[in-house]
Amino acid sequence: MPVSLYDLTVSAFLRAFANLSAILEKGEAFAAAEGRAPESLTEARLIADMAPLTAQIQRASDTAKGAVVRLGGLDNPSFPDTEKTFAEMRARIEKTVAFLKAVDPAALEGKEEAEVVLKAGGASLTFTGRDYVLNFVLPNFYFHVTTAYALLRQQGVPIGKRDYLGPL
Prior knowledge:
Layout: H1 5-34, H2 39-42, H3 53-72, H4 86-101, E1 115-120, E2 123-128, H5 129-154, H6 161-165
Antiparallel strand pairs: 1-2
Helix pairs in contact: 1-4, 1-5, 3-4, 3-5
């Protein structure tokens, strides 16, 4: 039986967001235990020209929402990028998860060969549904999730691969 686009996207996103939310909780607890300002973590960057932790959460959310919206022809809920705190980042994840859980798997059925046009930075990229998921969505999503993990790890938060992968 082939793997569905729903399983490749929504199922994977839900798992990653659960793990990411738990990692953020550990980051917040670490800042409190160490007497550090939470902003020292939420505004952390791996390097000056990379976006901070807050933006990594926002981009992971946008990527997940955008994938099912484009594939399923759904309305895209607008989440303004205003998160600054750990609680706000977790709330963003919760809103994204609620949206994803409301997606009917049938909305993504048979979209493997559907044309998906992505407009980014003045360019227009055209994919099949399958190629969009495998070659753009999943790498982009996991880039932001991994970067969020790496930012917290770089700041000394005691997290490891098991936290990133979550319960197996």
